Amino acid sequence: MSLRRILSAVATLAATAAMVTVGTTTSQAAAPAPACDYPAWHAGQSYVAGDIVRYTDGNLYLAVHDNPGYDPVISHWYWDPYDCDGDTTPPDPSEFVVSQAQFDQMFPSRNSFYTYSGLTTAMSDFPAFANTGSDTVRGQEAAAFLANVHHETGGLRYIVEQNENNYPHYCDQGRSYGCPAGQAAYYGRGPIQLSWNFNYKAAGDALGINLLHDPWQVQNNAAVSWKTALWYWSTQSGPGTMTGHHAMVNGYGFGETIRSINGALECDGGNPGQVQSRVDNYQRFTRILGVPTGGNLYC
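== Putative chitinase ==
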């Protein structure tokens, strides 16, 4: 047999081996699925743009900016959700468990600054918010967050803290970065009334926004305002032992969300009237969303 015929036969055999016969149908073998075996994320480990990690929730995240190990669920500025085909998949705002009509029902007298679109835009930075667990858990978390927001802002009527005498109080000059925007610049703003220079710095660092030098963004930009509230809810335990997000998705109850926001002043009998106000909001909002309240409503 000539060399040409030998090579032709080898090629034919190789092509045949690449075919898969199922029943009477012959088809090309499927290409292997893209590898999804990415390393686990570690807090404090430096990442560069392009790195892909598997977070503790089992989902993949792509670093879109260099960062020193920020939590992937904190900021879309540093991380994007990632799938095995290389596509980013931010949550679809249309899937938010609270509709525009329900939001309007919850906040009938809200300031026009607090738009529904501002909230859903901010949610893209926090894909786990109201998007974790069963439909019931998702609804309970949304109701809990918005119930606390209602209490903090008088039903979304107030963008900034109303008692201006408190404004100079929120500057901790003992921090190395001080209060570059001014002694009285870090008063409460936004849906959860972000206050103190160290909170503005931490929120700004996480979100990729210079809030330490320009805290007024929280009262001038609806999306930024909502992002600071979701940042606190998703990442800060405050005077409590867990974040509001953790409390709701892991069954600790609404009372623990109160503790994380203002527990030092309200919980353990500190101000039962304020606690009751928050609980009343939560019960009303869960009825609107058609989900049970769950237990442990009080702190």
